[in-house]
Design a protein that fits this description.
alpha/beta, inorganic pyrophosphatase (n-terminal core), Diaminopimelate Epimerase, Chain A, domain 1, 6-stranded mixed beta sheet, 5-stranded parallel beta sheet, 12 helices, metal ion binding
């Protein structure tokens, strides 16, 4: 059962048509990996604010007297959007045209955007312009957010949960229930990011359950477990469908960047089993092409695949042009205690002198690993 977001699609098309001719923009922007949670959260919150107005509780008082054009920015280049297969699947199923979205290379962000609301991340080059944050990863002391910025950071399963909570705080529950299409749109990333409320993955928290309950009651879902399972499978299948992607495109599918002024580590995430990547066509050559294009020192490749009612995680580290940094990253991930990744080296895979691991601690995700790598880079 999918609901078409016709009014949302019209809003997106209209705001895109005028976006290049206005400068008073309040942009809702997700993270650079543009996973489902990030994309849906930014689009949904921008849509809500366009209807409710800047009197929303997530807008600081000092900004409420201003007039803004509110729009979501998809934080990737337009050419990379088709790589986000679970995102494009979910958008299309809800009647959102990909051409109605504004990607970051389709707008002069520096000159046009006056203020930002960040969703699903809170460290940004635009920190001076950030007025509000909704995020579900651990707080980063180096975020440099301004004191007046409204910050809602909770370590829960999904940022979409925080978006729905923000909408609920602006509206009453009965009004929320009237917008079934929006609720169903938010339902998907909550299910996906909590790994279908898996106890083993240990991502879901009480607020995720509370917001899910609002959705499921509003949509009058009878067979809850079957509905959740069906949506989860559809999204997992869409994310894992790399049949139309080559070994170069996969590296850009879900990407995080950690860097300092001298070194860059890129962490790619994929529904593809990491151990399968070396056997794809032109994999070694395309890793080198990707590294040259992006000026990368070290590549980390993380994969997660659901298996029955649990998940499997895998991790790979490949040196490109900084052996010292590569060695330090290997030592760091192998010796991590908080959390302990419980890595087991696969000695059968020989690929670009990299190391490929099974990750025994399936609860440890990129959200826990990235800050550790970021701290390591500060020593360089």
């Amino acid at each position: 059962m999918f609901f078409k977001l016709l009014r949302m699609n019209s809003y997106l098309k209209n705001i895109k048509s005028v976006s290049k001719n206005v400068t008073d923009i309040l942009a809702v922007m997700g993270n650079e990996s543009v996973d489902l949670d990030s994309a849906v959260s930014s689009i949904s919150l921008a849509y809500h604010l366009s209807n409710f107005g800047i009197s929303s509780r997530i807008i600081p008082d000092s900004k409420r007297s201003k007039s803004y054009n509110i729009l979501p920015i998809i934080n990737c280049k337009k050419e990379h959007l088709p790589l986000k297969t679970e995102v494009t699947y979910w958008l299309k199923e809800h009647g959102i045209e990909l051409d109605s979205l504004i990607c970051k290379d389709e707008l002069n962000v520096d000159s046009s955007v006056k203020n930002f609301i960040l969703v699903d991340h809170h460290v940004s080059a635009y920190h001076e312009k950030v007025v509000s944050v909704l995020d579900h990863r651990p707080y980063d002391e180096k975020s440099m957010l301004k004191k007046e910025c409204i910050v809602n950071i909770q370590e829960i399963g999904s940022c979409a949960t925080l978006v729905l909570e923000a909408i609920k705080n602006d509206l009453n529950t009965e009004d929320i229930k009237k917008d079934e299409s929006l609720l169903h749109f938010l339902y998907g990333p909550i299910i996906l990011d909590t790994i279908n409320y898996s106890k083993d993955a240990d991502k879901v928290r009480e607020l995720d359950f509370e917001m899910t309950d609002i959705i499921e009651k509003a949509l009058s879902i009878v067979n809850i477990e079957e509905t959740r399972k069906s949506i989860f499978k559809a999204l997992i299948d869409a994310r894992a469908d790399v049949s139309c992607l080559n070994s170069l495109q996969i590296l850009s599918k879900d990407l995080k960047i950690v860097s300092n002024k001298d070194s860059t580590v890129k962490v790619a995430m994929s529904g593809l089993h990491v151990f399968e990547y070396p056997f794809m066509n032109d994999a070694a050559a395309n890793v080198k092409v990707f590294a040259d294009q992006e000026n990368i020192d070290v590549i980390m490749f993380m994969g997660m695949k659901p298996v029955d009612d649990t998940v499997e995680r895998h991790l790979a580290v490949m040196d490109i042009k900084n052996k010292n940094l590569y060695d330090d990253i290997i030592k760091t991930v192998e010796s991590m205690k908080n959390p302990d990744l419980k890595l087991a080296l696969n000695e059968d895979i020989k690929f670009l002198d990299g190391k490929f691991y099974s990750q025994g601690n399936v609860k440890a995700s990129r959200k826990q690993i990235l800050p550790v790598i970021r701290d390591l880079l500060q020593t360089y």
